[in-house]
Amino acid sequence: MQKGVIYKILQDVYKLRCSGVMAEVRQRIIRMQISLKTGLNLNEYTPESMDPDDDIQRVLNVIKGSEIGLEHYQYKKEGSV
Amino acid sequence: MEKNCIISYGAKTIEEVLSAIKVNNPGFMIFFYGAGNDYKKIEEKIKPLHVPFIGCMDAGRLVSGEYLLDETTVVGMSISKEIISMIVIDTVDLSPSRSRDDIRAESRMKFQEAAQRIHIDLNNPDMEKDVAINLAFGLNSATPFLEGQSEAGLMLQTIGGSSGGKTDFIETNVISSSGSGHVGAFAMIHLNDPYKFIMDRVSSFTSYEEKTLKVTKLADPRHILELNGKPATNAYCEALGIPLSELTPEIFANNTLGIDPGDGERLITSIMKKDDKTGLLTYNDVIPGTQFKLYRTISQYDERSRSISDVLKNKKVVGYISFDCILCYIARNSLNEVKEIAAMYEKLLPGIPKIGFGTFSENICGANINQTETYLAIIKG
């Protein structure tokens, strides 16, 4: 269990993949894709949530996959990537 | 002006529909037809017009302010080249005999080729003008078809549904200007200035608080054996507080499964029925470890009216295409809400051409879902 990790990873993904025009639409697509591929309710992960290691790994596997394409992403507590 | 650019109409024959939806310089047409129609005959009448088109069999259809629930009528919408700048129609073979990997690979390739032909950058599409409409063969999973598209270009927004038909789930089909039958057809479109699109989804459910059902054992992607480490039927009944003997189609329709990607979004997976033991069969694919929430139905009228009017508020809508679950059609029938909800669309979008059909599943941006309406609104400015 680690605190707030999935929330932080999602913020990183949005920053890397959803900037610029129509950022909200891009975020929506990414959120749906991660939920579909992990089966997780992403609304439950907050800066304070205690996130199971298995859930963290599921999210990491999806964002490193071909659709989202962050194969070199590494989670860091502060200022990742 | 838009009245000459986009027209929808419903009638007893395809000939009547084609006669009524003539626009200047037609650029794209879409059709939905009842299960009593021979799709090859419909296709034969449309093809000589040499206009790109897609269409499918359905389980009921929407046209303007009316639902047509018979098995014979046809509805069509024609959109002119003033709105459609560029378009490619193509199909993927979704025959049940094909492997999921083969379908996914063909879908990815066809999507990439289509984008190249009309110069859409799949890595950076125009988020307001580039869109793909999907009609998938409804008796096979649409998931690999959609996965192939997401692999080709996640950010190109897609919307649509799986073809419907009678509730015996024996026959359905898709037609298009690039093939028909057991196919998934897509229309990849770039809109002209000043036209844009908006897409969204609405499902009329509210969450049961604190009730999560984790998929702990699957027989196949549409067959759940265990939830929360218990036989699936037992865990589902426990969560609802009902005995096993009360498991009926109505219970499944009114108490559904889903996941929440955030911001109130809901990706619904409906339960079709129980198996002959203690498992549950679903209408779309499930992955191991999915942490389903349990949702109960609320009024379609209230939720749709609120959601659609919020999204389309202050927008000049010129056309509306709806992909609406067969289970929503059935629920409206059983609650005698058919006329009321059809009238709601006319009230929200008065005089705007509308078309839609009852699907065997709905899709939006790669997600294959149930008990939901996904829709595409074309707007001006």
Keywords:
heterodimer, A: 81 residues, mainly alpha, 3 helices, B: 381 residues, eight-stranded antiparallel β-sheet, six-stranded mixed β-sheet
Q: How would a crystallographer describe the biggest sheet of chain B?
A: 8 strands, antiparallel
* Distance from first to last alpha carbon of chain A: 21 Å
The outline of chain A comes out as globular
Q: How confident overall, as mean pLDDT of chain A?
A: 91
Distance between the termini of chain B: 14 Å
* Oligomer classification: heterodimer
Helix content of chain B: 10-25%
Whole-angstrom Rg of chain B = 20 Å
Mean pLDDT of chain B: 95
Helix/sheet category of chain A: mainly alpha
Unreliable runs of chain B, pLDDT <50, ≥5 residues? none
**How many helices of chain A?**
3
Q: How large a portion of the residues of chain A is in β-strands, by DSSP E?
A: under 5%
Strand order of the largest sheet of chain A: 1-2
Radius of gyration of chain A: 12 Å
Which overall shape of chain B is indicated by the principal axes computed on the Cα atoms?
globular
Number of domains of chain A: 1
Low-confidence runs of chain A: none
How is this fold's topology laid out?
The complex is a heterodimer of chains A (81) and B (381).
Chain A: E1 2-3, H1 5-17, H2 23-38, E2 50-51, H3 53-63
Antiparallel strand pairs in A: 1-2
Helix pairs in contact in A: 1-2, 1-3, 2-3
Chain B: E1 6-11, H1 14-20, E2 26-33, H2 39-46, E3 53-57, E4 61-63, E5 66-68, E6 74-80, E7 84-93, H3 100-117, E8 130-136, H4 143-152, E9 157-162, E10 174-176, E11 183-191, E12 195-202, E13 205-220, E14 223-227, E15 230-231, H5 232-240, H6 249-254, E16 255-262, E17 265-269, E18 271-274, E19 280-282, E20 291-297, H7 300-312, E21 316-325, H8 326-334, H9 338-348, E22 354-359, E23 361-364, E24 367-369, E25 373-380
Parallel strand pairs in B: 2-3, 8-9, 21-22
Antiparallel strand pairs in B: 1-6, 2-6, 3-10, 4-5, 4-22, 7-11, 8-11, 9-23, 12-25, 13-14, 13-20, 14-15, 14-19, 16-17, 16-20, 18-19, 21-25, 23-24
Helix pairs in contact in B: 3-4, 7-9
